[in-house]
Amino acid sequence: MKCFKVVILLVVLFSGVSNGQQTIIAFDRSNDISVFNEDSVELAFPWTGGFNFCQFGEMDINNDGIKDIVVFDRSGDKVVAMEFTGTPGNPSYRHNYQAEAAFPPLKHFMILRDFNCDGKEDIFTFNNTAFRVYKNTSSAENGLQFSLYMDRLASFTNPLNQDIFTIPVDISAFEDMDNDDDLDLLVFNITGSCVEFHRNMAQEQLGRCDTLIMQLERTSWGRFTEDFSTNTVSLNDTCVDVGFNGPPVDRHAGSSMLVFDADGDGDKELLLGDISYRTLTLLVNEPSNGQDRITGQIANFPPNTSFVNLSIFPGAFYVDVDHDGKKDLIVSPNSETGSENNRCIWYYNNIGTAEVPVFSFIKNSLFVEETLDFGEGAIPAFIDYNIDGRMDLVVGNYGYFTPNGDYKAQIALLKNIGTNEEPAYQLINRNYANLGELFGTSVNYTPAFGDIDGDGDKDMLAGSSDGRLFHFDNIASPGSEANFSLVTPTFEGIDVGTYAAPFLVDVDLDGRIDVLVGTREGKVEYYRNTSNGASPVMELQTDHFGEITTALTGEPNGFSTPVLFRKDGVRYMICGSQAGYFHLYGDIDGNLGGAFTDIDSTFLGNRYGERTSITISDIDGDDFPDAVIGNYAGGLNYFKGVFASQIKELADGTKAFNVFPNPGKDKVFIESGRENIRKVLMYDVQGRLIKSTDGGGNQVEISTEGLPKGIFVIQILSDQNSEVIRWIHQ
User: Fold this and answer.
1) How many CB atoms are closer than 10 A to CB 649?
2) Within 13 Å of residue 215, how many CA atoms lie on the same side as its CB?
3) How confident is the model at residue 7 (pLDDT cuts 50, 70, 90)?
4) For residue 30, which of 11, 7, 10, 51 has the smallest C-alpha distance?
5) DSSP letter at 586?
């Protein structure tokens, strides 16, 4: 795959510039800053964004002929691409964030299987009770790319073709069940107790395996049922009395399936996980009269090693982690609530053969131990805590899952151990300022720093899930390392209801630190400091600062996380959000009581998980602000700041891309000054792929008739660049 440098560009209009020129704010996503753990060991890939409730598949993401591992995290429907860099039997990986941008928007699950026999894994994902299918159209010339193949996968059920039903929490099994080289499907039926077998009839009807022609073959594959409220499996059950011909039953809530030949006899067993249970059960297949039949079960799988024992709902995946030619077993929680969120990727090495696997437990922290991961949620804030002139990093979280089912929220400290030009970080303390011991059941600590009492040092506020702000005074002597002491758990009586996200800044430019507080609903509240002395007096000015909201239309939650900053003398505000997008707002100066302008509701271009937050500071001394962002998967991404004074241009001054008319109506044109446009993708603000058009020249036309009015995101892929531009449909 060609290596494309991913640069996220934001065009900001400055009304005060008389010549009408535009100023560019550009962030180059990077993994270049080194990070060390508590034991001073350098992390292999610190900036992945974290891992919580993960699914795994194999795919060649860089066209080198070697299968890599793609991770899909239910926390924010986030893809993490892990490129294999080791040798057979000696695995090592690097985080390939460039490849992640090529993946289409995925929802709830990602199943990677090659359905058209071209050697490239395609994608099955969720689409409103059905399966959506993306075809892998990657090539050496065009790199990693996908196109929509089927919006809703259907099956012939006699006499009709009907969408194959699935639910978002299930993981189904796309496998060649009848050994004819095309891809079949096992999926739990609408009751959740019986497994349907949908045979792919491509070979039977066309004599080839390059498509999906599904037909419901059996309503009770394996002749077993799973109890609707437990993980009990009943054998020799035809399923005819489960919710169809018999009385109505409650639906079984959720199951995960992995199909593989566990005993080398040529048929496939089923490894089953259940939404309410901690372990996996292997269902043993012994076919009879040409039909698969489950005749036995092995609980607490795998045997003869540390069996899977997660807090709830394990999902299992069959991939060759160490590239020794034998597929291994990876297990992770498949539930987004009540699940382990730090020791959450269990790795079992196959010490048997490719035909008869034998799994041996290796670790419960595959990939997690080599990245920055703070359980659920990561909310970063820069502060120079030890007054050495280098910005350190503090990270709050929603919490680490505990064995009793609760969450323990903490704040971590990462010390900048690099130089002013080349920062590097070391994780010093996961429970900085002892917050994890102070507040009982409060979670979702959001740190903010500023000189609240006017004594010249940085104090701390910590927002929490109960809507309050915990105030810590910095009692250190001048020039000494910060020492935070709790003053009150109810700073100035401020209570925004739930999920307070504070930011300390002098909003009205009167020399006193004020407070902005993001809320669960997606608004921002503004409290002005009216004190004339050392003790702050905060008075609510508005509970809808700038009249902004980060909640998507129709959604109740926005989880705004505000940051107010200044660029070239003009102030702007960036807010993270529940949906994972960052919103950039302008028209703030001289307009504190009015409505701000939503300059860009998809700032940074892509989604980076969900419940995102950002902190900004020049950490490498080049006068360009850098950024670290956090998300609910518990990790961080780093963006190096590169500011320019005008639109990105080629060497001769020609613009790289032009999208016009913008705003537009029935059609939109994408034009390149000199680069060959390979593909243009259009997404709505919820991240759904709306249109995909191949290029082949320096201009692409897209018909937009029938699209609703609103904001869309156009991603342009050329031979040299990938760029995201906002387009408005009138």
Assistant:
1) 12
2) 12
3) very low
4) 7
5) E
- Single-letter amino acid, residue 548: I
Strands, E, within 464-586: which ranges?
469-474, 484-488, 501-505, 514-518, 524-529, 538-542, 561-567, 570-576, 582-586
pLDDT number for residue 271: 98
Provide the pLDDT for residue 643. Answer: 52
pLDDT of residue 20: 32
**Tokens 């996996």, residue located:** 280
The closest alpha carbon to 447, from 506, 378, 511, 513, belongs to 378
Q: State the pLDDT at residue 719.
A: 65
What percent of the chain has pLDDT above 90?
73
- For residues 547 and 403, give the distance between their C-alpha atoms in angstroms, rounded to a whole number: 42
Q: Which residues contact 461 (CB under 8 A, 6 or more apart)?
A: 447, 448, 449, 450, 452, 469, 470, 471, 472, 491, 502, 504, 515
In sequence order, the 6+-apart residues with CB closer than 8 A to the CB of 266 are: 179
303 pLDDT above the threshold of 70:
yes
Whole-angstrom distance, CA of residue 120 vs CA of residue 101: 18
User: Between the CA of residue 560 and those of 157, 525, 570, 655, 668, what are the distances in Å?
Assistant: 46, 10, 22, 34, 32
Note the pLDDT tens digit of each residue in 497-551. 999 999 999 999 999 999 999 999 999 999 999 998 889 999 999 999 999 999 9
Q: Is residue 713 classed exposed, middle or buried when 0-12, 13-18 and 19+ CB atoms within 10 A define those classes?
A: buried
pLDDT at 605: 76
Q: Which residues contact 48 (CB under 8 A, 6 or more apart)?
A: 80, 95, 367, 371, 372, 635, 637
Is the peptide bond preceding residue 562 cis, with omega within 30 degrees of 0?
A: no
Which residues are paired to 342 by β-bridges? none
Those residues with Cβ within 8 angstroms of residue 595's Cβ, 6 or more apart along the chain or in another chain: 546, 547, 587
User: What is the dihedral sign for C-alpha 81, 605, 507, 616?
Assistant: positive
Return the structure tokens found at 48. 């992945």
Residue 585: strand pairing partners: 573, 598
Please check whether residue 601 is in contact with residue 549, taking contact to mean a CB–CB distance below 8 angstroms. no
CB 177 within 8 A of CB 186: yes
Residue 491: strand, helix, or coil = helix
- Residues 471, 459: Cα–Cα separation, whole Å: 8
**Calculated CA dihedral for residues 539, 545, 547, 551, nearest 10 degrees:** -110
Contact partners, residue 80, CB within 8 Å, separation at least 6: 48, 49, 51, 70, 71, 73, 95, 100, 367
The residue type of 462 is: A
Question: CA-to-CA distance for 32 and 179, rounded, in angstroms?
Answer: 46
pLDDT tens column, 128-173: 999 999 999 999 888 999 999 999 999 999 889 999 999 999 999 9
Interstrand relation of 5-13 and 721-729 (parallel, antiparallel or unpaired)? parallel
Report yes or no: 85 and 93 within 8 Å, Cβ to Cβ.
yes
The H-or-E segment that residue 99 falls in is: helix 97-100
* DSSP H helices in 158-281: 202-206
Q: What is the DSSP letter of 190?
A: T
The pTM is what?
A: 0.85
d(CA 608, CA 636): 10
92-122 tens-digit pLDDT: 999 999 999 999 999 999 999 999 999 999 9
Backbone angles phi, psi at 546, to 5 degrees: 70, 5
Tokens 């401020």 correspond to 494
Residues 308-321 as b/e (b if ≥16 CB within 10 A, e otherwise) read bebbbbbbbbbbbb
